[in-house]
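User: Before I run my own analysis I want an independent prediction to cross-check against. Here's the chain; please return only the structure tokens and, at the end, one sentence I can use as a sanity check.
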Amino acid sequence: MTPAGIAATTSGVELVDAGFGQRGEYVRGVAIVTTDNDQSVGEFVTVSMNFLDASGAIVGTAEQVESFAWAGQHLVLPIWLDLSATPGVEVDDIDASISLSGYGRNRDKVDPLEPVDAREIREGQLGDTTAVFEVENPTDSDIDNARIGIVCRDADGVIVGGDSAYPNRIAAGKSVLVESDILTTGKPTTCVAYPSHGI
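Assistant: Structure tokens:
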């Protein structure tokens, strides 16, 4: 579903796309942000997401904070919402906004990492879905505490959910296998992992 309201840019940061997936009382919003400003690298970007029902009423608000590792990065922020206190509520849309810290943080220069398509998307017997990725570290340095945002889309290219994963280490020149229990609305057609260096 198309987000009801997206703050397109703020302080050099752009919200590229956003969506959500729901399984029962659990909802995962997903936002993709980017920046072409070197001054944003190392700063914290916050996405605040309102989850709306079919009438447009807010049924919950949640946020996620991440940090840009390089200019031009597509940074994925998964946003979790638990509706177990109000069972039966269905999310119909989202309203997302973004903000960027202004601490002037410096961050060591790192090599960009490329997105990775899922090599397998499989359904479990309980209606769950698992996406499998082979994530490579092409650099000559180990990546500790990697942060991986996962975005899943339907056949129309609409974000229908995702997840995140945090491998402890991806050795220099090596790959790791990442299996993620993704929360989506329906079965996704594609899932893409966006690896990033640890904060």
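Sanity check: Residues 31 and 77 are 5 Å apart (CA to CA).
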